[in-house]
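U., I forgot to send this yesterday:
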Amino acid sequence: MRRQILALILKELLAVLRDPRSRMVLIGPPLIQLLVFGYAATFDLNHVPIAIYDQDHSQASRDLVARFAGSPTFTVKDVLDNDRRMNALIDSRQVQTVLVIDRRFTRDLLTHQAAPVQVILDGRNSNTALLIEGYVNSIVSGFALGWAQEHGARAPPATLDIRARYNATLSSRWFIVPGIVALLTEVETLLVVGLSVAREREMGTFDQLLVTPLRPIDILIGKGLPGLIIGAAEASVVIATAVLWFQVPLRGGLIALYLGLAFFILAITGIGLAISSLVATQQQALLGAFLFLVPSVILSGFATPIANMPGWVQALTLVNPMRYFLVIVRGVFLEGAGLASVASQLWPMALIGAATLAAAGWLFRKRVT
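Result:
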C-alpha cells in the first residue's frame, strides 16, 4: 500500500510539474508578488510633497526650511509668497502639507518666547496625515534643540531619546516581508491542494482512481502530501529572497522556522483538501480558495494588529492558522526566537490541522460513497 501511495504522490507531482502553465503559476507569480509587495507595500513615507510659506525670511527660518529640504521624507514642491494658493495646492493634491513660518519667528526665538510654526495637512488620508505630523514634529523639535544649544538658551527640560528594539531603523519592510512568506505560502499551498481532486474530476480520471486498491484515506494522503512538498519548497524560495534580496535579518534558528512552517502547511493542506472534496470543478475550487483567503489575510494581523479588532472578531482569528504562523515567522526573523518561544504558537496550528484533515477525510469519504 505504501508503494501505491508513493505512486499517487509521484503522479500528482508530475501532473503539476509537467504542465508548463502549472510550472509558471508555481514559480513566476510568487517571486513577482514578493518583489511587488516588498517594494510597494510599505508604511514608510518618502518624498512627501510640501510647500513652504516663509513670512520671516530670516537666517533662522531658512535654517528650518533647509532641514525640511534636506530630509529624505519631504520634497519641497513650491515656495509661496502669500497664502492665496495654499488651499488650491492641497485640494489638487500637488502637496500634502504646507509649512507656514510666522513673520515674528526670529523675534520670538531671540526673546525666548514660543515661536509657533503652523502645519496645514491634507487630512483626507488620516493615517498618512498622522505620520506626516510626526515627521514634521521631529524636524521642528530638532531645530528647536539645536537653536537652544547654539544661542545659550535654556534647553527643554526633557528630551525624548527613541531607541527601537529588533528594528533599529523602523523600516516597515522588515515587518512586511516576513509576513509575505506566510501569505504566499498559504496562497500556493491552498491552490495546489484545492485544485487536485477537482482537476481529477474534470479530466474524468477520478472514477478510475476509485477502482484502484487505494482506500479513500490513501487517496487523500496522496493528494495532500504533494501540496506539503510544494508549499515547503515555495516557502524556502521566498525566505531566501527575503534574506538575500531584501536584506531582512534572519536572527532565529531554521529549526523553529521550519517546524512552524510544517504545522502551518499541514493546516492549510487540510483546508485545501476540504475545499477540493466539496467542489466539482477547478473554477469552483478557485472560488472556494479565494473565499477563504481574503478573510484569512485580514484576520491574521498581516497589516492591522489583532488587538485593535473588536472582541468577537478577535475570537474568529483563533481558528486562523496564518495568525499563529505570522507570530512565528516575524519572531524568528526579527527577535531571534527559538523553539521555546514559538511553542505556544505550534499547538493551535496542530489542532487546526488535525481538525481540517479529519473534516476533509470525512467529506471525501462522504462524496465517494
